[in-house]
Structure formats: C-alpha cells, structure tokens
Amino acid sequence: DDEHLPAMQRHFQTVTDGFLDIARLCLSVLVDLVLASLRPAVQSLFTSEWYGRPGSTMQTIVVTLGDYLADWRQHLDRFLVGRLAADLLDRLLIAYLEAMRGRQCRLKVAS
Fold first, then answer.
1. Are 102 and 48 in contact (CB under 8 A)?
2. What is the rounded distance in angstroms from the CA atom of residue 61 to the CA atom of residue 44?
3. 94-101, long-range: CB within 8 Å, 24+ apart, which pairs?
4. Residue 67: CA atoms inside 13 Å, Cβ hemisphere, count?
5. Which among 33, 28, 38 is positioned nearest to 93, based on CA atoms?
6. pTM of the predicted model, to two decimals?
7. How far apart, in whole angstroms, are the C-alpha atoms of residue 4 and residue 13?
8. pLDDT tens digit string along 79-108?
C-alpha cells in the first residue's frame, strides 16, 4: 500500500539507525578491551625497563594486535574489521604519544 510506505520508511530508518548505533558502540567496546589488555605494555613505554629491553614491549603490542585482528577477521565483516583496526590504531597512537609526553621524552636525531 502506498499510504503506508512513508511510515514504513521512517520505521526502517529508525531501526537502521539503531543497528548502526549498536555497531559503533560494540566497536568502541572492542577497542577499549584491546587497549585495556595492552595497558601494562603501554605504561612501560619510555621507562628504564623499555629502554633496557629494546623491542620487547613493542613486540608484545604488535603480537597482541595481530592476535586480535586474526580473531576479528574470522568473525566480523571485512568493513567492520577495517573500521575497528583504524579506530584501534588511532587510539593506540594517542596512547603512545601520551606516554612520550608524560615522561617528557627527548628525541635524538641521528647525525
């Protein structure tokens, strides 16, 4: 019926918007969970432990991210995996820069 079409379209849009809101929330929760599992490694960035054991902290971070991404690829749509990875990398970069700033690091440029 053409008379019910506008109402059906409004309801369909409402349901679609609700599913998108839930998907965004779920992605945010997944990113939060990953960052929580990486918190000890991120907190050790730019510390004497980090400088004393080159590569071990970053290896922990990279391996952990790889494990999560492998799991997500098995269970999520390709678009969602890409979106999730991008969101995660953005937040991880922020955490890295905050760790650097919090420890007042000075970068040396090789000559």
1. no
2. 11
3. 95/35, 95/38, 95/42, 96/42, 96/45, 99/42, 99/43, 99/45, 99/46, 100/45, 100/46
4. 9
5. 38
6. 0.78
7. 14
8. 989 999 999 999 999 999 998 888 777 666
